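Example protein as discussed:

>
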Amino acid sequence: MSETSFAEKARDTDALDGSHPVYTFGRPVTDRRQLLTKSLWIGIWLVFLTAPVNDLVRAERETWATVLGALGLTAFVACYLTLVFRYTTKVLDWRAVYASFAAQFTLAVVLALGFGSNWLGLFVYVSVSVGAVLPLRRAAWAIPGVTGVMILVGLRTDSLQDVLGNLAVLNLLVGFAMTGVRQLVRTTIQLRQARATVAQLAANEERLRLARDLHDLLGHSLSLITLKSELAGRMLPANPDGAAKQVADIEQVSRQALVDVRAAVSGYRRRTLAGELAGARTALSAAGIEALVPLEAPQTLPDEEGEAALAWALREAVTNVVRHSGAQHCTVAFTARQTLAGPRLELRVEDDGVGGAAAAGNGLTGLAERVAAVGGDLETGSAGRRGFRLAVRVPLPGAAVGSPS
């Protein structure tokens, strides 16, 4: 498999992770649309600010107190957004993080003490910030600590039952829920990095294998051509017939080298069932179709031509399901069958779309010709009431290529 193929697979895999022009989980934003999506997601949690905002607007206070409260609330929200926007995925400067935490926590305590129980919801944002940014060990004691301080502040104006029932339990649940989200974000990032590393290592391995194959194929031939060319050059003035024989040998060796290179390149380009199965899972999942696809190809496979025919059939069938069927479910299965013509491997692709017994188009016609060329047969029809079924059977090793059963 070439390096380009691995790049295509990496793009397909990212598509499954949600790597569209919107904000992706665990990945920094890169454009305005992603920024807007992330802002809306974070903005949903600002609902807990309705109580302090209403208190600022409706409570009868001195003007200076209202202004200070508004400034303090603005600074608190700025600290919160700084933490969740910049430090959820990676922390480069822990001093800035702890300074933001200190400022956020201090503002929550001062504002709740100064303006009353309507401002206790600010502690929820402190717990969210702790769970989203701090490591799990530190968050495990910091969240209960923040909740404890909130209870102490709330007891100035409310009873213990009211404080526990209204916000204390919620504060704990939201804080620890964010620690789970944080771990999920970190795991997603590590998985994406590991996947990219594996793809790069596999591409490097394929590059090395291609270099070894080309060296094995062409090294001897080119060396022989060089030696015979030098020999023909020395023989040409005195022995033209011998030089002509060397030139004929050079032509024969070069033709054989060309045949070997073409065979090697065709081997790199041929379709395999393992690769097409992976592509089928990717395509069906990206299209929102529930797919039942084998994780691996069958242990017993046809020869290269037969496997390539099955791979092309699988690709064509999955493409039709994704583009035309409108299906919700798709099933791919392999079955080894014993027929009058010998053992055969059957590929069956079924969906529950609107295909029915459709007429054969150019794709199916070409596919039938490709399957017939390797001694196999193709069958299409309805799958259940509405779906479409495609079955392809090709000979297995040891089968006599003849008319299909």
User: Anything to note?
Assistant: Residues 1-26, 399-405 have pLDDT under 50 and may be disordered.
